[in-house]
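Hey, can you fold this one?
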Amino acid sequence: MIQKDDTAVAVAADERHVEEVVTAHVPATQALPEPKEAAPSVRGKGQRLAALDGLRFLAAVAVVFFHFAGQTPETMRMIWGRSYQAVFPDSHRYFAYGRLGVDLFFLISGFVICMSAWGRSPRDFFISRVTRLYPMYWIGVLVSAAVIYSFSTPLGHPNPRLVFANLTMLQKPLGVANLDAVYWTLWPELCFYLTFSVVVWMGLTYTRVAVFCGIWTVAAVLAPAAHLPLMTVLVNPTSAPFFIAGMAFYLMYRFRATPLLWGIVLMSWLLAMHFILAPHGGRLDWHHWHPWRGWLVLVVTGFFALIAAIALGWTSRIQWRWLSVAGTMTFPLYLLHDVIGLTVVHHFGDRVDPRLLVVLTVAGLVLLSYVVHRAVERPIARYMRRWLNSASFGLEAPAVRRG
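Sure. Predicted structure:
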């Protein structure tokens, strides 16, 4: 299988459905959380952050175009059968920046997960994460496997054992390759959920989330320096600054901007710059991509600025429903586009104009994502939610079967 750039994304993972983007409000009967000097922001009941959904969809589309038109020279030649200079001589350099969409995904995920978990019990948080993440992921793995084993693709034919390991979403700690390179982002998401669930169990407050951000920042810096492999895998240093900044931005949104929160964001931005620009062990593969460092700084800083605008309420008037609909398609598009899309361009790349082929393929994948979400993913998630809500999570033995 092709080993793509580590920035081959998703999402998001989960960051991800419009159902997650819920109203941030405090019930009238609830005491004001910390900080005591900061009253909760007033948000309209039922209000959705359409701007956040729009950004999430744009990040997904950027990643899609990166995979089709902005990958490394070797991968482009394997997909299209010729060099990128012959396919996208002028635009390849711009599409290559689409790999940074993963950073925007992680920023949004920190914001959204904190928002969707607020006021929920650990049980509710667990059910929410499982039903948001696994149904579409299972669909994506099965569809990708069917395409890989049924058609001639540039991805090769991996051992079937790979499929079973990938269905667990634990292939990284199992030491198994990703069936689709975009799955790499799901491990940082899972680690985020696991560690954040401790704060959910304690009860989310301003102070606890802020302290969690600080502890995670310190762990992300010290774990690699102390040569603690297990801790390094868990805290995901190169991804951590984006999750942490996202949580701090949500605290700004829910309460108000404070020097402490801006300090967390600033430290996260500095660490993000460090990992983005690091020549070795960072986020990018400098052997295959040589952009001007200034553009990297500007793009990632722009991501922080966009989430800051949402956190400060500057985008509250943006309530276009189509943005929320687009947000629901982000995770399906992320999981389905790579194997299907690369197989299509591999087969038709020498028969159709590359630019037209990419546009038609992306449009088809967006439509497919909408259909899969509405007709398959949502019904499965709804059934799983009902089943888990009725289940007992205790360890006591069930009633003895009679008869």
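The radius of gyration is 21 Å. Let me know if you want another pass with a different chain boundary.
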